[in-house]
Design goal:
The protein is mainly β. The chain contains 4 helices and 21 strands.
């Protein structure tokens, strides 16, 4: 049988053969026209397909480099974007922001003491340590002078801050300097390399209102410290302590439970000061703080329990401090503290927390101290400070003996020039005096300079 296609072809051929010549010519022209139109339509379809493929490639590239929103996706399936490159801290929580800083500090000082030399390599040779000012107990002291240069208080810190999807705020912070003494007997001295070990200053983590770790005591107001060339300046009148603690802060209030440690003066001063590790209850603190454009004001309280060799006693202290702005170029900073058992918190432990009686019982010792500091900016690059500080210990001489510190005080004046915002060049003159319970006194005069660069 002949197929349908063949029959149709034969019919078309017969029809053409029967047509007149003129009609045949017209039919040929129409046929050519239709063929040409079909070819053009095919070419346009190919061009549309090429354009569509290009647009799809562009859309895929855009999706790979941006996170599409739910609206843009509209339920369509999207290929996952390539994984991001590894971060500097791959173990950190997503979204953590890291910060790093510190400073380089060179201290140079000339010191002259009236009643003997401060021991080489001790804290008193590096900064003002009120308990280190020599006093000749027999009144026959001799003057001494010496120069010290070091960079041990250079510092660095690392912080990590995270805010979770739920709005929780997490922070980790660690800080260290080089005030750790020699790392070994040969390298850690001033003969060859002046090598010093790294010292932990702060290490804590906070979660919203809670803080756990080592940092400044909640009993201390760091923001009130004067702008001095010396590491601490008015040491004897300053509450100064860094230690492990658990702290809770809410609004103007903060409360903490901190590491306990009891310092003890033996009965009648017979022997060196004792440090007791028998404490059970942590030192408890509470603070109220108010801030404003005028400065800040804070009141803090301390409650302690002392234990040693089966005996115990309690103590408490208060501290009031702040900063008051006196216009654009001046401010006044101050601190007044005191109470029973304030010992190791005041003046770098100028006095003990407690004293032993003849039967070995503990008695909390009273102590008081404070400072006032005036700061003036002569220009954006030059500022100066005038500072006075004092501490008085209310010793029971029948228990402590007469060779313990009864009073320490100092006055200092400085000028600090900053040729660049982060560079300080400072010079400070200071005079300090320490008096014993027996009335003997010793003084110290110091010229202290520093170069400090913050980064």
């Amino acid at each position: 049988m002949i197929g349908n296609k063949k029959l149709a072809a034969l019919a078309a051929t017969a029809a053409l053969a029967a047509m007149p010549l003129s009609a045949l010519a017209q039919a040929v022209d129409a046929k050519a026209m239709e063929a040409r139109m079909a070819q053009l339509e095919q070419e346009m379809q190919q061009m549309r397909e090429v354009l569509q493929a290009y647009q799809q490639r562009e859309a895929a590239s855009t999706a790979a480099n941006a996170t599409p929103s739910a609206t843009a996706l509209d339920g369509a399936r999207v290929t996952a974007a390539p994984a991001a490159p590894a971060t500097v801290m791959p173990n950190a929580m997503p979204g953590t922001k890291f910060s790093f800083g510190g400073f380089i500090k060179l201290d140079s000082m000339y010191t002259r003491t009236s009643d003997g030399a401060i021991a080489d390599g001790s804290a008193g040779r590096l900064f003002y340590f009120p308990g280190a000012t020599p006093v000749a107990v027999d009144g026959n002291g001799h003057s001494a002078s010496y120069t010290d240069v070091h960079a041990q208080f250079s510092r660095f810190w690392l912080g990590a801050d995270t805010t979770t999807d739920n709005g929780d705020k997490l922070k980790a912070y660690i800080e260290a300097d080089m005030y750790g003494g020699g790392s070994n007997a040969f390298a850690g001295n001033e003969v060859i390399t002046n090598t010093y070990a790294v010292t932990l200053r702060q290490a804590y983590v906070s979660w919203n209102n809670w803080l756990a770790g080592q940092t400044w005591s909640n009993f201390q107001d760091v923001a009130a410290l004067p702008d001095t060339v010396d590491f601490t300046g008015p040491s004897e009148g300053t509450i100064f302590s860094r230690q492990a603690q658990l702290r809770y802060s809410k609004g103007a209030w903060s409360f903490s439970a901190e590491n306990p440690q009891t310092t003890i003066t033996p009965f009648a001063g017979r022997g060196a000061r004792i440090n007791s590790g028998d404490d059970v209850m942590p030192d408890l603190t509470a603070r109220w703080l108010r801030r404003g454009d005028w400065g800040h004001f804070t009141v803090s309280a301390l409650l302690r329990n002392f234990r040693y060799d089966g005996h115990n006693d309690t103590g408490g202290a208060l501290s009031v401090s702040g900063k008051f702005n006196l216009g654009a170029n001046d401010d006044l900073r101050y601190m007044v503290s005191g109470g029973a058992g304030v010992g190791r918190y005041l003046g770098f432990a100028l006095g003990s927390d407690t004293v032993l009686d003849a039967e070995g019982r503990l008695h909390a010792m009273d102590g008081y101290g404070g400072f006032a500091a005036w700061r003036h900016a002569f220009s954006p690059k030059l500022r100066g400070n005038l500072v006075y500080s004092v501490a008085v210990l209310d010793n029971d001489a029948a228990l402590t003996g007469y060779e313990v510190t009864e009073k320490a005080q100092s006055v200092r004046a400085n000028l600090i020039y900053s040729p660049f915002p982060k560079l300080d060049l400072g010079m400070e003159l200071s005079h300090a005096l320490r008096r014993l319970e027996n009335g003997q006194e010793g003084d110290m005069n110091r010229i202290h300079t520093h170069v400090k660069y913050n980064f």
